[in-house]
Amino acid sequence: MLFADVRGSTALAERMLPEEFSRLMARFYGAAAGVIDEWDGIVDKFVGDGAVALFIPGFAGSDHAAHAIAAARGLLEQTGNEGPDPWIAVGAGVHTGKSFVGTVGEGDARDFTALGDTVNTAARLTGLAGAGEILISVEAAAASGLETTALEPRTLALRGRERNVEAWVATART
Fold first, then answer.
1. CA dist 23 to 26, 30, 145, Å?
2. Distance from C-alpha of 52 to C-alpha of 59, rounded to nearest angstrom
3. Which residues of 136-164 are buried (b: 16+ CB within 10 A; e: fewer)?
4. pTM of the prediction?
5. Are the C-beta atoms of 9 and 128 separated by less than 8 Å?
6. How many whole angstroms separate alpha carbon 133 and alpha carbon 26?
7. Measured on CA atoms in the order 130, 123, 80, 72, is the torsion positive or negative?
8. If you count DSSP H runs as helices and E runs as strands, how many of each does the chain have, helices first?
9. Chain segment 29-77, per-residue pLDDT in tens
10. Residue 69: partners with Cβ closer than 8 Å, 6 or more residues away
11. Residue 46 and residue 95: Cα distance in Å, rounded?
């Protein structure tokens, strides 16, 4: 799972005309869709100021966790978060594990999505990631073979979870 979220979007929307903000978000969505597709992910949805992507082994291959991390790095690069002046500030979270992936709902209120602890953990990691940061769970790091010696470790208390989550802080370049 990859979640990416625009930082400071409430303040941006307050200072911009709705049409300008819509164009800015469309540019972000386009950048996200491009890197997710490049790394064999599936855009689950764009929600408000965020993007949710699935990296299912059947589509992304056995390196699905590495693809999710690469897509997160690519999104930070595409949005200028590898340097001091991004055109839009973004934080991301990556986690891996088993989830329900399929159609939920009934009748006309049906949607394809992913559900479960893995999804919730990825979303919560994203909420704690600063602008230009990717919080990568130790599970995703291990599954991807990520070299972590140069990365900062964090122990995170995630809202709604009983146990803390261990994560690594990465950027577009680390």
1. 5, 10, 37
2. 16
3. bbebbbebbebebeebeebebebeeeeee
4. 0.95
5. no
6. 21
7. positive
8. 6, 9
9. 999 999 999 999 999 999 999 999 999 998 898 999 999 999 999 999 9
10. 94, 134, 136, 140, 144, 146, 170
11. 18
